[in-house]
Design a protein that fits this description.
Blueprint lengths: L1 H10 L9 E5 L6 E7 L7 E7 L8 H17 L19 E2 L5 E6 L4 E3 L6 H17 L18 H14 L2 H6 L1 H9 L5 H9 L4 E3 L8 E4 L5 E4 L6 E3 L1 H12 L16 H12 L8 H5 L1 H21 L12 H19 L2
Antiparallel strand pairs: 1-2, 2-3, 3-5, 4-5, 6-8, 7-10, 8-9
Bound molecules: 2-acetamido-2-deoxy-1-O-phosphono-alpha-D-glucopyranose (GN1) and magnesium ion.
Length: about 350
């Protein structure tokens, strides 16, 4: 607690007799998160989120904070109707405070009366989530993209993802190659799937402000779970094609199964697919270009395919990127994505 108290004192004037409460939260696997209560009678009473940013994943936290701040200021100027996750400044006026170990800490508002949903309970909830993200993109349509640096360079470089797979293959352990034989064959046979997308990305798809991780748990609903209130986890904001976010919503919302469930049956939820598409288009229907709209379905296939490649590459590399809790997890994740992709390919269009 004394460590957090030192950090807290960079944000708040804590000389008052009343002590703040600081309680760890189980949110997220990457950053350390605490809920901080500054009691009544202090200068700035209220509830806040204090986070230590994981330096292994985010090499340049200043970039993330600068993007968050630009986005929050833009949303505020546009009278954005949802809650804004605007990072708070410390007493020196900076968005990050560093501890003795050199780790970066930030302070965020705590969004009261909200709930976090792990999995869409219904097509309606998937629709509302996609619609809330749609509102987020729409209000950020005119943000100055030059002010936003990607937090993870090359995140959207799909050609690079394929090169990484092709490099992992000859270097992989023989046993892993054997267990992944079918998945390697599937990926190799479909390498052309993303080719048109890569060309579109360089030539025709406009850059928008994207969230980069638009899963349903990165949205806070109101207590009823009916209305979206606040888009959170702004660590992967970046300029890119908004079709990536659409594709990733389809990927993460339409999956009836857990991401590491390799079962082949009943993976894809077509009703949720239509709900996500309607929600995504709600505010963007008249903003997207014809090329963007024509490639919605295709982009979902590509994003799922690329995710399959990322999981398979990590499996071949010996599980160095994604956290795993059992040996075949990355292979099962690959299977799950391939099964989902098969269902989308069958859906045609
Ligand atoms: C990672 O850690 P999480 O679940 O927020 C990954 C995403 C993948 C996702 C697949 C920075 O996100 O790109 O889609 O796993 N994030 C990063 O579950 O690589
Ligand atoms: Mg994330």
């Amino acid at each position: 607690m004394s460590f957090e108290r030192n950090i807290l004192s960079t944000f708040f004037d804590l000389h008052a007799a009343s002590l703040p409460a600081c309680e760890p939260l189980e949110a997220g696997l990457i950053n350390m998160t605490y809920m901080v209560t500054i009691p009544q009678g202090s200068k700035e009473p209220g509830v806040y989120i204090l986070q230590k940013i994981n330096p292994a994943v985010f090499k340049n936290p200043e970039v993330i904070m600068a993007s968050m701040d630009v986005v929050a200021a833009h949303l505020a100027r546009q009278d954005y109707p949802d809650e804004i996750l605007r990072p708070l400044r410390n007493r020196q006026g900076a968005l990050l405070s560093y501890d003795q170990m050199g780790s970066a800490w930030r302070l965020l508002p705590f969004i009261i009366d909200s709930v976090c949903v792990q999995q869409a309970a219904s097509p309606q909830q998937a629709y509302e989530s996609a619609r809330t993200f749609s509102r987020f993109y729409a209000y950020l349509w005119t943000v100055d993209l030059a002010a936003i640096q990607p937090a993870i360079p090359n995140f959207l470089d799909f050609a690079g993802r394929m090169v990484a797979f092709q490099q992992a293959l000859p270097a992989a352990e023989e046993g892993r190659k054997q267990t992944a034989e079918r998945e390697i064959a599937f990926v190799t046979a479909h390498l052309d799937l993303a080719a048109k997308f890569i060309v579109l990305q360089t030539e025709q798809l406009p850059l928008r402000l994207i969230h980069g991780d638009p899963k349903i748990s990165n949205l806070l609903f109101d207590r009823t779970g009916i209305h979206g209130r606040c888009v959170i986890d702004l660590d992967t904001l970046m300029p890119g094609t908004v079709l990536y976010d659409y594709g990733d919503m389809i990927r993460s919302y339409t999956n009836n199964r857990a991401e590491d469930d390799p079962a082949e049956q009943d993976v894809f939820n077509a009703e949720v697919y239509d709900a996500v598409t309607a929600g995504f288009l709600y505010y963007l229907q008249d903003k997207l270009t014809a090329v963007e709209k024509e490639n919605l379905h295709y982009s979902a296939q590509v994003v799922i395919f690329i995710q399959a490649i990322r999981f398979l590459t990590d499996y071949l590399n010996g599980d160095i990127y994604y956290k795993t809790t059992y040996p075949l997890q990355n292979l099962y994740r690959t299977r799950n994505q391939i099964n989902l992709l098969r269902a989308l390919l069958e859906k045609g269009k």
